[in-house]
């Protein structure tokens, strides 16, 4: 979804050109005013994050004297240094990065295979299976956590980063199936038939015809899945325990409890923890934005 | 063609499709379907989560639930949550979409800023807003500056305001998605419609009322369904901002389940709470699931 400005179609009526120019000027002025209003609103909207930055880069005494929203007297990185040490965010980044890097490719692969079967192959009980999979969109995770915990405990995978993998895969499947199946359906059947007539096996059709054609959907799903995995709290809270295994949300939760009076340190820590996701969003926002609307507004 | 051969010919593609579907279906069955069904069984026991015996207690947990004052609070909070976090973000999102869709510059940047909260981990959002709502925090600061010092308040420390305060960041996070969807829907309306309406002398309000609003019907349905489904999941923000306090006043069904299972070792009772919230979520979500399943 590109957000080019949908300007009114150029006026082709035989209007006199000075009137047209005046109208154009008026419209530009209005667009300019509208932009200013929206920028102010956006600034207000981003205020919690801006307050975080302003607080994180000023000294504790500056914060105590002038509050959160004043411009810093001088810039300091000391808050970030102490927050980094206390929060153990390095460990958390590694843990969240590892589980995301393993979970997302596996999840996208197995869900693509499943979606191919649902969209393009003759699948028995297709309707029932689709319905059961999509029910996963509405089921809150709470219904599954106790058995998940005991199952993982019986194979000694609690308090282990890799204990997260299978539940994360399972709970990622419904949304991925929704997006990928509807995308695969729109891949023309003739393309696939042509490959089959050329003697390609289904595995080949999948890997060399369908996947390359579906790259935009695959990438979008992978990015959204990565964001969700990186941010997940409930299962991580239940499965993980030791500090060395904490993911980013867990380390933030823990960090928050240790910085209840030092607000500059707290702000710095939150910023550190949010930095990777903010960077990813800034770089990949096009995919995120288009993917979300594609998933919901099918067709 | 003999019956047997036809059958064999039909079976092969089915076997192929099952082979493709198997890995994901197995994971889904083992780590979502099976645990969900097993939880229903556990909800009829007084299991503590550890001991080998799972004493069957019939509907004991469910009748206990009816008399648990914290469950009453949690149900009330879930309803408040559903009401606020469905209506406010959708209204905000629609307003933002219309504003962003009007003739302005820097549209992608502005859209990106408004969607930013939605990608942050909810724990992070909760931590930020917990800090803003501190008695000496920015919210009270600003209230003082604009002459509303009388409203200054320990927002999260007071059991009457705490749950409402937690809905504020929820709205902040969740306005972005409806905005994107409405924006996509708005951009899908052909410009000719407005042109011809203008030629026919339709006012701006009439254009909005008779062209814009009807064109958003599909988006309304999806936005509303997804928002409603999401309300049952409230957990992260409560844990990050109040941890259910003060005095259990901000417990919701999800957190109260968590506290029962993992802090008081009432796994049977906790799963009963989970079963209740799941049934409600499933009933609410089924129309949406059916409509999506039909499309696939």
- Compute the number of strand runs of chain B: 0
Evaluate the radius of gyration of chain A: 25 Å
Order of helices and strands of chain B: HHHHHHHHHHHHHH
- Biggest beta sheet attributes of chain B: none
Estimated structural class of chain B: mainly alpha
Helix content of chain B: over 70%
Q: Indicate the multimeric state.
A: heterodimer
Structure description:
The complex is a heterodimer of chains A (299) and B (296). Chain A contains 14 helices and no strands. With 299 residues, chain A is mostly helical. In chain A, helix 5 (89-120) runs antiparallel to helix 13, helix 8 packs antiparallel against helix 11 (215-231) and helix 11 runs antiparallel to helix 14 (263-296). The longest helix of chain A is centred in the last third of the chain and has 34 residues, at 263-296. The model of chain B has no long low-confidence stretch (mean pLDDT 91). By secondary structure, chain B is mostly helical.
Brief account:
The complex is a heterodimer of chains A (299) and B (296). Chain A has 14 helices and no strands. Chain A has 299 residues and is mainly α.
């Amino acid at each position: 979804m590109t957000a080019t400005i949908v300007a009114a179609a150029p006026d082709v009526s035989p209007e006199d050109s000075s009137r047209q120019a005046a109208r154009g000027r008026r419209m530009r002025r209005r667009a300019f005013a509208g932009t200013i209003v929206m920028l102010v609103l956006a600034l207000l909207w981003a205020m919690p994050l801006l307050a975080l930055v302003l607080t994180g880069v000023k000294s504790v005494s500056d914060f105590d004297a002038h509050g959160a929203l004043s411009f810093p007297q001088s810039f300091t990185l000391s808050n970030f240094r102490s927050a980094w040490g206390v929060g153990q965010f390095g460990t958390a980044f590694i843990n969240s990065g590892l589980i995301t890097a393993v979970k997302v490719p596996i999840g996208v692969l197995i869900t693509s295979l499943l979606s191919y079967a649902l969209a393009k192959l003759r699948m028995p009980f297709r309707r029932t299976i689709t319905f059961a999979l999509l029910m996963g969109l509405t089921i809150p995770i709470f219904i599954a956590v106790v058995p998940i915990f005991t199952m993982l405990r019986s194979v000694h995978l609690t308090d282990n980063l890799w204990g997260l993998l299978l539940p994360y895969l399972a709970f990622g499947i419904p949304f991925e199936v929704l997006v990928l199946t509807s995308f695969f359906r729109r891949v023309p059947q003739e393309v696939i038939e042509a490959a089959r007539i050329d003697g390609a096996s289904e595995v080949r059709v999948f890997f060399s015809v369908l996947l390359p054609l579906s790259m935009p959907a695959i990438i979008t799903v992978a990015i959204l899945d990565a964001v969700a995995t990186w941010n997940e709290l409930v299962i991580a809270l239940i499965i993980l325990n030791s500090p060395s295994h904490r993911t980013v949300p867990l380390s933030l939760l823990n960090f928050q409890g240790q910085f209840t009076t030092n607000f500059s340190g707290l702000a710095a820590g939150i910023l550190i923890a949010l930095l990777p996701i903010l960077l990813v969003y800034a770089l990949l926002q096009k995919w995120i934005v288009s993917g979300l609307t594609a998933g919901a507004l099918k067709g | 063609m003999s019956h047997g051969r036809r059958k064999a010919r039909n079976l092969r593609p089915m076997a192929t499709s099952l082979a493709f579907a198997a890995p994901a279906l197995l994971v889904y069955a083992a780590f979502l379907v099976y645990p969900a069904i097993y939880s229903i069984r556990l909800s009829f026991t007084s299991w503590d989560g550890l001991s080998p015996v799972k004493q069957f207690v019939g509907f004991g947990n469910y009748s206990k639930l009816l008399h648990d004052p914290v469950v009453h609070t949690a149900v009330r909070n879930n309803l408040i949550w559903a009401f606020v976090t469905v209506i406010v973000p959708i209204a905000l999102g629609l307003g933002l979409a219309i504003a962003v869709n009007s003739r302005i510059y820097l549209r992608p940047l502005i859209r990106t800023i408004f969607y930013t909260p939605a990608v942050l981990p909810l724990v992070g959002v909760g931590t930020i807003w917990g800090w803003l709502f501190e008695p000496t925090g920015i919210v009270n600061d600003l209230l003082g500056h604009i002459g509303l010092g009388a409203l200054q308040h320990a927002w999260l420390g007071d059991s009457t305001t705490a749950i409402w305060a937690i809905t504020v960041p929820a709205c902040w996070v969740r306005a972005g998605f409806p905005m994107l969807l409405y924006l996509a829907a708005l951009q899908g309306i052909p410009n000719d419609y407005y042109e011809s309406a203008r030629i026919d002398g339709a006012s701006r309000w009439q254009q909005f009322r008779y062209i814009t609003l009807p064109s958003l019907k599909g988006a309304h349905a999806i936005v509303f369904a997804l928002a409603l489904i999401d309300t049952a999941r409230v957990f992260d923000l409560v844990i990050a901002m109040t941890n259910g306090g003060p005095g259990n006043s901000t417990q919701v069904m999800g957190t109260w389940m968590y506290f029962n299972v993992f802090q008081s070792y009432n796994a049977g009772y906790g799963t009963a709470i989970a079963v209740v919230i799941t049934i409600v979520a499933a009933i609410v979500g089924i129309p949406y699931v059916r409509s999506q399943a039909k499309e696939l």
